[in-house]
Amino acid sequence: MKDLSTGNEGKLILKFAIPMLLGNVFQQFYSLIDSIIVGKFIGKGALAAVGTSMPITFLLISLFIGITMGFTIIVSQYFGAKDMVRVKKAINTLYIFIFFTSIVMSVIGILISGWIFRIIGMDPTIIPQAKLFLQIFMAGLLFLFGYNGTSAILRGLGDSKTPLYFLVGSVALNIILDIIFVPILGWGVWSVAVATVISEAAAFIAQIIYLNRYHKVINFSFADLKFDREIFNKGIRIGLPTGLQQTFVAAGMVTLYGIVNKFGIDANAAYSVAGRIDNFAAMPAMSFSMALSTFVGQNLGANKPERVVAGLRSTLAITAVISVAVSFVTVLFGKYLMRMFTDDPVVIELGRGYLAVIGSFYILFSTMFVLNGVMRGAGDTLIPMFVSLIALWVIRIPIATMLSSHHAIGIYGVYWSMPIGWFVGAALSFAYFLTGRWKKKAVVKYAADGKRTE
Questions:
Q1: Within 10 Å of residue 309's Cβ, how many Cβ atoms?
Q2: Which of helix, strand or coil describes residue 164?
C-alpha cells in the first residue's frame, strides 16, 4: 500500500502509473495475441469475427467496469483519511457485487450473442464464429470481473505493482495456450476464447491465494463477506455515471462498426486491427488518468486539495511528451504495424490510413482523459459522463455517418470523426475543471477548520 498524500506529486504519479501502464499493455496482449494468431493462421474472416466481438463484450461489461471505479474512488478516499474500517467494508461490498453481477451478465451475454451481430449487419458467413467466441468469453466473466475488481481495489490502496505481477503470468499463459490451440492443434477461433478464459481464471485464483496469505487488508472469504448498504449506495452514486458513460461509449463503438460494415469485410478487418494498435497507443493516457484519479482521491481524503492541481500539471506534462512519441510511431510506421496481423494488402492500406489520421491527434485524447481523471478521483463522475456522450453521440457518430456517406471520403469519414470528438471533449472537460465544482463531490468531507464532517 502506498500513501500518495505526501511527497513530490509528479514523481509519485509517475511511479504509481508505470506499473499500471505496463499492466494495461499486458492486458491488451490478450486481444492483440488473439488477433495476430487468428489473422495469420485462420484468416481475415476470423479476424473480423474476433475484432467485432471486442466492442460488444465491452458493451456488455462496461456498466460493471464503471461501478467498480466508483468503489475504487471510495477505497482511495477512505484510505487517504486512514479509515481502515470503511476501507474493509467497501472491499467486502464490492466482492458481493462482483459475484452476482458476473452471473447475470454471463447469462445475458450468452443469450443475445447471435442477435446482436445480426443487428449491426455483420457478414452472415462469419456470424457463427463470432457468436461462439463471444459465448465462451462471456461464460468466464466471473474470473474477469474478479481479477479486475481485486486489481482496482489494490490501486485504490496505492498498490499498482501486485496486479501487474499476476497479469504478466496470465498473459504468458494466454500466449502459450493460443499457440498450442491454433497453430499446433489447428483448432478454430473458439479456442482463442477458451485460452483467454483459462488465463483469466488462473490470474484471479492465484491473486486471491496470494492476497489471503500476505495482504493485511484484502482477505477473500465468502464466509466473512458482509454487505454494507450505505457504502454500496455511495459506490453506485459515484460509479453509475461512469458505468453509463462506458456503456454509451461501447454502444457508440458498436454503432461505428455498423457504419464500417457497410464497406465490406476488408474494411471491418482493417478497422479491427488498427483499433487494436490504437488501444495500445491510448494506454499511456488511460493509465496516467487512472493513477491521477487515485492520487486525487487520496489527497482529497487527506484534506490536501492544493496537491491536486500540482498533480494535474505534472500529469499533463508527462502525457503530452508520451503522446507526441506515440503519434510519431503510429503515423510513420503504421503500415509495418499492420503487417504484424495480416498479409492482405487492402487490409494493410486501410489500416494504415486509420493510424495516420488517428495517430496525429493523441495529445487531444490524453488531455481529455487526464482532465476527466481529476473529476473521477474527486467523485464527480456525472460531468465526465455527459462530456463523453456529447463527444461521441452528438459529434463523432453524426460526423462519421455524414462524411462516410460521401464516395470521395468513404471509410475515412469514420477515421476523422474521432479526433473531432476528442477536441470537443477536451474543451468541455477543461471548461468544467476551471469551475472548481468537482471539489465539492468528495466522499470524505471537511469543515473550514479542517475537521472531518463525514
A1: 13
A2: helix
